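Case study B.
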Amino acid sequence: MNTVKKQKNKANVLRQRYAAIKSSDPELYYLIRCEQKRQSDTLELIPSENIVSKAVLEAMGSVLTNKYSEGYPGARYYGGNECIDKIETLAIERAKKLFDVPYANVQPYSGSPANFAVCLAICNPGDTIMGLHLFDGGHLTHGWKKSVTGKLYNSIPYHVKENGEIDFTSLRNLITKHKPRLIWVGATAYTKAFPFKKIAKIADEVGAYLVADIAHIAGLVISGVHESPSPYAHVITTTTHKTLRGPRGGMIMVTDKGARKDPELANKINAAIIPGSQGGPHNHITAGIAVALKEADTPAFRKYGKKVVKNAQALASELIKRGLSLVGDCTENHLILVKVGKGRGPIVEIALDLAGITVNKNTIPNEPSTPFYPSGIRLGTPSVTTRGMGVTEMKKIGKWIAQIVNLVRDEKLPPGKSAKEKFLKNLKTKLETDTEIKQVRRQVKELCQKFPIRETFI
Ligand SMILES: Cc1ncc(COP(=O)(O)O)c(C=O)c1O
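Model:
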């Protein structure tokens, strides 16, 4: 088929896919197509995002969404669940095999509800929990004061050192002093390998439950490019939509070690999901998770996971070569934190966005500014790697990022919240017509067209 025919064919496929929405709700149809175009013409470097396969999309768009199934396979509060039971069991068995655990719950609506359910299952209100501080890359649900996990429990955060590594000496002292009931290991912006074994040793000394939140690195664990927490943690939680490349959802797994510590742990977690904190499972998502887990259990996926890290390291090297400063000077996973100057994260985020490179502003260790106006940006390679990009493309992307960071190097936020907001709005308007940004955007689009979003990866 020649190129014009191929393009026409693709356009037809897309039109057919949304044909019903197009006729019933043209306004929404337009917005979906708009987002579809944005995704296909820009480089998605937000490390928690990815692109699912057509098979995952089909599962999510299936009739399974029509069914109520409160409870668990074989023990539901509703009739008519004979197919759903089999689907949920399939997802559970695939998760158990892939993560080498004896027990999995695939019902959490997402990563946050999964983490809350683990707290509910293990802790009583007022118990002490520990997690990496939000500003150091930890997640809200690991005890941040505005999260229910920080309100209900006595949360003691631990920190990273200037080089981005967990400050182990201080962590050891905190654990010994506070004797927490539960310790979280895992993060949303951490560029090093998690020291599961080392933390487990101290957790065991004080009898704490160690919970590994592998939301970001689940796909890397499956691919063997990050150590598995399975031998060390009692419980593992994850989202299913980041490096795992499935639908938006969550899972909770109990390890052999966890089941030995408390043989009732799996039942307690089940009860913490329903009736504890959720209602009926989202069966169409459960099916999407089952599909993604099958896709992940292949040599092609393991190759993908390795390539994600290789690409991140290539991108990190290119950024350093071009004079940018990274937290920890490198990355050991899929994620990079670039230091862009005090409070300048939003400026760089806006400029890169206009150039077609999507990133997010992020705090850095010892953040000198605030989380709303942080001093770093966070980048990751899961999505561009799914599109098939490799080291050559990472070098190009690194060059463009450095070029844009340099372009806005003299822009500085004024003091005061409303002055800052006004400044950023004006900056966006000013940069929209910048010729250098427009030129990078054109090049980005050309690159994206060479690596179109495909419908199958495996
Ligand atoms: C480490 C970690 N845990 C949990 C979550 C929460 O996931 P969700 O946004 O699906 O609730 C995230 C999301 O970014 C995360 O990075």
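The chain has two domains: 63-296, 307-450. The remaining cases will be described in the next quarterly update.
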